[in-house]
Amino acid sequence: MSAEARLSAKLAEMGINLPAAAAAKGLYKTVIFDGHLAYTSGHLPVTPDGQILKGKLGKDCDVEAGYQAAELTALGILATMKAALGSLDRIRRVVRLFGMVNSTADFDQQPAVTNGASQLFADVFGPEHGIGARSAMGAGSLPLGVPVEIEAVFEIEQ
Amino acid sequence: MSAEARLSAKLAEMGINLPAAAAAKGLYKTVIFDGHLAYTSGHLPVTPDGQILKGKLGKDCDVEAGYQAAELTALGILATMKAALGSLDRIRRVVRLFGMVNSTADFDQQPAVTNGASQLFADVFGPEHGIGARSAMGAGSLPLGVPVEIEAVFEIEQ
Amino acid sequence: MSAEARLSAKLAEMGINLPAAAAAKGLYKTVIFDGHLAYTSGHLPVTPDGQILKGKLGKDCDVEAGYQAAELTALGILATMKAALGSLDRIRRVVRLFGMVNSTADFDQQPAVTNGASQLFADVFGPEHGIGARSAMGAGSLPLGVPVEIEAVFEIEQ
Fold it and tell me: For B90-113, what is each residue's pLDDT tens digit?
């Protein structure tokens, strides 16, 4: 099954559509290609109807809500990649994910939150190619007060 | 107009000179080259007379001061690149910027702060090549109490 | 002297053994290879008997303890690389380190803490190849409450 087909199945299961690729919210491009690598900008969680999620883990957002925000952020990254590449089938694998989690000083479950993005990529690209290297860390705060910001590096077919 | 010429024009407009390339402040090199990519270390905002800026966004540093600190940090990155390459004209484009903004728990305008660096690179390298992928995040604290730390990846002519 | 021999000498001096390569603690791989580059996941400080260190710089962990935690984290990265490559002698150099330091809002000595990892790599790979580009920043919190998390990029012999 292709990544496109797996994404369709996943979206059907979630009962949502792939969001539109978000425009850059500052002086940056949402993705840059260099040879066989694609570097995405940090993406924020945006609902299918365009609402930006807010919240801080350890305060007003629990791990499950953070997980779902990370999943939504990963969908936004896929929307960016699909808009840039035409098809997600041109993505060979996930090389690296960087999960920045808006956290209180005591919150220590950033990996469990970031798993929301990792699981989505594993579902779409398969467990071998969908899972790459990763760092997850606690950010004292994040742009627009979002609970999670995620950056990805993909290997693509040229 | 070359990047060098645009930088000169920008510096004249700002009324300052390009600072001297900063020495590493620890066990690291300020830039590493790997093929056609240059990875800079995280740079801190240093004034032309060598003073390191301090401050935390959301507390004792407003967005405009943060923007100027990011601009100064970007100048320091250019100083590092010019010292290493001989001329900024050897830089083909900005691939990635990572803006770490020293922030209180509530501050949420890291992109507006990081724009200070992005705008300088856009002015020097032009809007197409000067703007890359980017993540901006809130750091709970930063080395030496600076308001902003910035890391860059450039594509260079070999 | 080879990197393997220098590591053995360093471990003898520290009176410890290289820890076992840690399993991934979430949906990620501990290292990904792309051509001549190896991207590690963020590693946490784990003692040789498997205990994960806890603490926050500026609160219950001083710079010396943080330095030692960074050193231990670097050993864990080497364990990952040795398990993946067979021998550390296949590592040509350190390209980049990213040191995330669990810090209070006022702590500002993240470079001194991260030096614990940088010095170990300099000891093992030599000062020219063991020292790369680096960013060190204050994280408001980190996974499992560790004092430091470190991510590395190495150049390897293919």
Answer: 999 999 999 999 999 999 999 999
The pLDDT-based confidence of A1 (bands split at 50, 70, 90) is: confident
**A146/A69 Cα distance (integer angstroms):** 9
Q: How close does chain B come to A13, measured CA to CA in Å?
A: 30
Phi-psi region of A40 (alpha: psi -120 to 50; beta: other; left: phi over 0): beta
- The answer to the question of residue C127 being in a domain is yes
- Identity of the residue in C39, C42, C143 whose CB atom sits nearest the CB atom of A95: C39
State how far the Cα of B58 lies from the Cα of B63, in Å rounded to an integer: 8
- Please tell me the distance in Å from A103's CA to the nearest CA on chain C: 7
C91-102 vs C133-139, strand pairing mode: parallel
Asked if residue C133 belongs to a domain, the reply is yes
Query: What domain range includes position B78?
Result: 3-17+29-156
Q: Does A96 reach chain C within 8 Å, measured CB to CB?
A: yes
Q: Which residue of A has its CA nearest to C153?
A: A133
For residue B7, the domain's CATH number is: 3.30.1330.40
Interface confidence (ipTM) of the complex: 0.96
Alpha helices in chain B (DSSP H): 3-14, 63-85, 110-129
Tens-place pLDDT, residues C24-80 = 877 999 999 999 999 999 999 999 888 999 999 999 999 999 999 999 999 999 999
Return the closest-CA partner of residue B14 out of B56, B63, B81, B74: B74
**Cα–Cα distance measured from residue C70 to residue C64, given in angstroms and rounded to the nearest whole number:** 10
Most C CBs within 10 Å: which of B28, B61, B96, as the mutation test of the C interface? Answer: B28
Query: For residue B47, what are the contacts with CB-CB under 8 A and spacing of at least 6?
Result: B19, B53, B72
Residue A154 has phi, psi (to 5 degrees) of -115, 150
Residue B33 inside a domain? The answer is yes
- Which residue in B39, B56, B149 is closest to C95 by CB distance? B39
Residue B36 belongs to a domain: yes
Measure in Å the smallest separation between the Cα of C12 and chain B Cα atoms. 23
Total number of domains in chain C: 1
Q: Does A114 touch chain C (CB under 8 A)?
A: yes
B8 touches chain C (CB under 8 A): no
